[in-house]
Amino acid sequence: MSSKASHQKNVFGEPLQSCCFDPATGIFRDGFCHADSNDPGLHVVCARMTKDFLEYTLLQGNDLITPNPEADFPGLQDGDRWCLCAMRWKQAFDAGLAPPVYLKSTHEQALEVTSLQDLKSCAIDIH
Description:
Elements: H1 3-6, E1 43-48, H2 51-59, E2 81-85, H3 86-94, H4 116-121
Antiparallel strand pairs: 1-2
Protein name: DUF2237 domain-containing protein
InterPro entries: DUF2237
Pfam families: DUF2237
């Protein structure tokens, strides 16, 4: 486990759990949705990609499908887990296209952008 993760909390105020190691996600590509001052996009929502969400975000100008090896980005497909920008997740939620989330792996700073109630309504790790 990343030492950085042990100091960061999820939306429940508990230690942040990993999101995904394959593909390696997070701003540091270490598998965790860390909050970091060098990440203006606040990529802190751990989500399972859906075809609908990937198409939605592509239409918004953010291509998460096409691999970009220079940026250490493998390209995503339906079923992959990824640390999403909290604002994009909220936009997709408002459009009825938010992907499911893993709350134990979603950083507490996501609550600055969206509510715990909205996140819980899409949660797949707390039933």
